Amino acid sequence: MIVSHVKDVQKIPMNAPGVLNAMKQVLIGPREGWDGYVMRVMTLEKQGYSPRHTHSWPHINYVLKGQGTLFIEDKEYVLEAGSFAYVPGNVLHQYRSTSDEDFVFICIVPEEGDK
């Protein structure tokens, strides 16, 4: 069991090829008793983005703050607070901040997706 607040969770800079101004906070996962899944808060700062990439696991997203886009297989979707998305495994995708404020969203993945 865990009861906490996002402000108390360390922000981990994402340092990988094709990533800019991105951080993650792991809120709940196997360490907290949720076997097989991880709930993270992703923050893309101004002009931040993830790489355009594919992998076998899906993403479930819910936008908390800011504005951004989600590119999925040749189509770009505008996201804002309250938007949600399901990104299946094995599809080309990318997240990008499009405003001056942080683009912040929940991202739930299977455990193997949190590396």
Describe the structure.
With 115 residues, the chain is an all-beta fold. It has a domain at 30-100 and 109-115: Jelly Rolls, CATH 2.60.120.10. It is 0% helix and 52% strand. It contains no helices and nine strands. The strands form two sheets. The protein has a six-stranded antiparallel beta sheet with strand order 1-2-3-9-4-7, with no helix packed on it. The protein is globular and about 40 Å long.
The level-1 CATH class of the domain at 30-100 and 109-115: Mainly Beta
Order of helices and strands: EEEEEEEEE
What percentage of residues falls in helices of 4 or more residues?
A: under 10%
Cα separation of the termini = 23 Å
Low-pLDDT stretches are none
CATH topology of the domain at 30-100 and 109-115: Jelly Rolls
On the 0 to 100 scale, the average pLDDT is 96
Strand order of the largest sheet: 1-2-3-9-4-7
| Rg from Cα | 13 Å
The CATH superfamily label of the domain at 30-100 and 109-115 reads Jelly Rolls
How many distinct helices? 0
Total beta strand runs: 9
Q: How is the main sheet built?
A: 6 strands, antiparallel
CATH architecture of the domain at 30-100 and 109-115: Sandwich
- By helix and strand content, what is the structural category? mainly beta
Form type:
globular
Determine the strand fraction and express it as a percent band. over 45%
InterPro entries: Cupin_2 (IPR013096), RmlC-like_jellyroll (IPR014710), RmlC_Cupin_sf (IPR011051)
Domain Cupin type-2: 41-109
Pfam families: Cupin_2
Protein name: Cupin domain-containing protein
